[in-house]
Fold this sequence. Notes:
The protein is an alpha/beta fold. It contains 22 helices and 23 strands. The strands form four sheets. Strands 12, 13, 14, 15, 16, 17, 18, 21, 22 and 23 form a ten-stranded mixed beta sheet that branches. Helix 3 packs antiparallel against helix 4 (about 140-160), helix 7 runs parallel beside helix 8 (about 250-260) and helix 13 packs parallel to helix 14. It is globular, with a radius of gyration of 30 Å.
Amino acid sequence: MSDAYSSEPVSTTHQAHTLRSNEVTVLREIVKIYELEAANNEIVAAQFRQITDSRFYPLAVLTLKVANVIERWVRRVLHRAPMASQFAGPPAPPAPEPAPPQPVDPRLMLVGLEDEPDEAALPVIGSEEEEEVSAKPQNPRVVKFKRGLFILKHSLKVAVVGNGKGRTSPRLEANPYFAWTLAYRLENEHVRNHLKRRIALINPQPLMSVVMASYNPDHRFFREAIDSVLDQYYENFELLIADDCSPDAEVRSIVEEYAAQDQRVRLVRRDANGGISAATNSAISVASGEWLVFMDHDDTLVPHALLHVVLAAQEHPQATLIYSDEDKINEANEPFTPYFKSDFDPLLLLGQNYVSHLTCIRRDIVNDLGGLRSEFDGSQDWDLVLRVTESVSRSTIIHIPHVLYHWRSHAGSTSLATEAKPWAVDAGRRAVTDALARRGIHGEVKRVPGSGFNRVVFALPENPPKVSVLIPTRDGKYLGDCLQSLLDKTTYPNFEVVVIDNGSVKPFTQAMFHVLSDKIKVVRDDSPFNYSALHNRAVPSCEGEILLLLNDDTEIIDGEWMSHMIAQLLQPGVGAVGAKLLYPDGRIQHAGVLLGPQGLASHVGQFRPAADMGYFGRTALASEYQAVTAACLAVHRHVWESVGGLDENLKVAFNDIDFCLRVQAAGHKVTYTPLAQLLHYESVSRGSDQHGEKYIRFINEVLTVRDRWGLEIARDPYYNPNLSLNHGLFQLAYPPRTSPWYTGIE
Length: 746
């Protein structure tokens, strides 16, 4: 190892982590072992998914359970000790007589959590009322028999009906989110008492107006919706239900029944049917609360929903709009498909109404905007959120990273499939088109096929700015393909190509430069390879107002790629734009960068099929991120110069992440567009970072970035704390890094 590496630590924080030569091999082996184990785990997981997807899987599990019970019974009859593992220790001392089992939701059997202890009896999820626990203990055999009958019924139903027919959600044994909620989100008496005690410390306690439009709802779902509001721990609210002349008179009778029992419930009668916007506006017109809480007539709130909204409003007095995460529930109230959302992202909001549920807005703002607009019925909430967010400061839009809202999924609901209400999809497209017109932004709104998402194709100005494409190379293997595809396919009318030649020696490379001399500019730089320094020294030779960094191992797929990137870059507040990069086999290599996963960063959608939309459309829709890869990155020249270009201390890796974070710190947004797609052979020219001095340099650059941007890495606003840091695949975190039981004073 050189003296430079042995005597110069990365920083005072990470001095203890400076690598010694004998550690390099060990770390490299650990990385390789991790990669092999991860690949093997994925193979096993895929095989297990195939098994659990079988319609006979529940029956097979039941058969094994029955066989186990019979085996233990036979051994007791024969006075034989139970089978013990060869790894078992000495026999345990006789255990005291176990307490009689408590009634448990039999569906916990299906996810393997039936024996998990709790401080209080588990609630029966999906029942209309919680069953009262009898003071008299039940016979253990009766309890087991009931559980067995439930599982037998479930197994036979799946074997006959199959997995997909008649279901609006995954089977419980194939629903990891259900098990996750039981492990991390199951309330007990201690939690309830803790949250209720916290309410006493809130001063003042604002009145929350829950507004609901009703029209012929399912009676059971309707009652459950009302009950979920009345069961709120935070009690200073009013529930205003505007019935839109439901043909079913029983709907109004249900509301009157609740109103007679609780004065906080009020029925708002309408003389004529006007649609969901008109009905909701009727409820808003009689509201007196500081905040409006929007709710559908068949959905439900978690008991602590309003409490968390009030806590957020108290912590952020300037708040104007507050929204939360959400999930779906089926007819049996089984939770599935959680949407753990990003903090506010106006670009993503053009592609989908991800704010959706639960949405709370200050009443005076809604009134100033004229309420909801009937011409956008079906996506009236999307239209309202678009209008609100463009009229308030971004810092006043608050995201609560907890599931506070259960969106009912049943046949005919939009939560189940967008095909159920195609007019709602069209209304969403028109709402976004109207928003662009209000903002003076030229662009076309197109529907993403097979979804309810929108894709905004921004228009270029009449005289597009000149773009300087910077391509560093040293006898690049794919440089010829890169230049040919760039020059032949790109339709953008005003660009130059600046090749940074970092010491090429092959005659073929020099001949290519000579042939293309009238189309490209070659800047010779024979200094030792330093990605950052090469670009910094080449920028003064560029003529463009926009710099576009491009690797020499990329290849253009679609000629409109540069037009899409520059058109998005020219939108207000945007400082940099990244592209969607694909491996040669068609899988995604990059669709944005998440900070935090894998100890520092991870590419969004990596290794997924190119057509995959990602987690709730994240790879298919334009959105903001804290960083994008510099393998294809467009940036305003004035932004580049204002932040000082790339950090030359980061010679190879993570200079793009550091650069993007400095761009963001300077007040500009870093964004991603899926409309610009390129092939990327990823570091073919430079080689691997997993050996010798390169590996030492790589680790030092990791530590430098982590030391400089620790807070941004620990809390990426575009990556929900309920999602795993092991990778960037938007999968559940075990455990999550946030808890709804934490209220800020613990």
